[in-house]
Amino acid sequence: MAPPSATIDETVIREDYPSKGSTTTTKVGAATNCKTVDTLAVDFSEVRTCTQLSSPGKTTVVGTQFSGPGSAALDNRKLWPNGTTLMVSIFGASPFVESKIKQFAVEWSNFANIQFVFVAPGNSDIHITCTPGGSWSYIGTDARHIPQDQPSMNFGWFNDQTADDEFRRVVVHEFGHAIGCIHEQSSPVSNIPWNKPVVYAYYLKSNGWDQAMVDSQVFAVADPSVTVDTPFDRTSIMEYSYPASFTLDGSSAPWNTDLSDIDKTFIMQLYPNFGLRRTTNDGVYLVNCFKGSEISSGVAYYSFLGSNDGQQPTAYIDVTKGSNVIWEGSPGSVSFPDGNTVNWAIVANAGSLGTYSHVGSARNKFESWNVYKDKYRLLYQVDGWSCYTVYWCF
């Protein structure tokens, strides 16, 4: 069963271990403790599923939709206002488990202009409990409609022996739902060729689900008119893990425990930092270029959003004219013919440890562009020049 006052659709995620299809919901303030679940007994080779919840009367469900581990698809009706600080309360967790939830939840804030502040239960946007049986979350702003004495998110199997990879996998996934992300396999562009008889048989045995439940929670695809999608990303933290036997073409999805590169850039586009100066769809790359013994550095500007690898930039401005710039600690500015101005001031170790640093004309942290440090990837070639990405931002 879903948490109280909830209708199952694309906005609730429940991972059905070890309850075999039944999830208990505890009111905030009732006695519960995450430590009652023996995580060490979990067989992580099993496929786990996550049910998405939607607040009744607040969401129009188009068909039956669902969400899960992976985050390159998002319900555009449920986004929080950009720059929101969400108040989060946790009830029923041990001090250790609570510290881990806090540690991994904020990974989204490295890339999205969304902040989480943890407060006592009673006046929060996201209310977390630790009721054994399943992990799930309401999608995005649907959490606003959940009474303070009821959970909007639950973690069902954490204890003080849970490994960091499992904390990260589940916490980052569920908080992805909380900021609007749906399951990656429900993306309209996923096109997974499911081996339905095998999947039906698995979930009937493991979760007690009938075919209608599997249809709504595994096979259903979200309406394109209410989603924002990137190309299907099997490495997304929002993607279900499933074995090759579940598909007709032998494709599978791994256990993803980290935000993928697409997750990071996608959520950065949806929740950009304040003062982001760009057109609706554009990107800027700081590149180092080589042509035999000649070298140069410059700014490549793309007026469209998408995979730009191998594509000629809309415009390019040479910055160094005969040398390679050390982008870190070398502030500068260029103006393109269409009026776009790019200012950069990259701090030392920008983009290290998987985090974004800042680029732009503003001085304060949240008034700058974010920039991602690349691995010197070949971006494009032209007239004998090969240009490699050092930093980029959308």
Automatic annotation (TrEMBL):
Q: Which domain of life is it from?
A: Eukaryota
InterPro entries per record: MetalloPept_cat_dom_sf, Peptidase_M12A, Peptidase_Metallo
A biological process (GO) of this protein is: proteolysis
Stored SMART domains: ZnMc (SM00235)
Residue limits of the Peptidase metallopeptidase domain?
76-216
Pfam families linked: Astacin
Protein's name according to its UniProt entry: Peptidase metallopeptidase domain-containing protein
Record organism: Cryoendolithus antarcticus
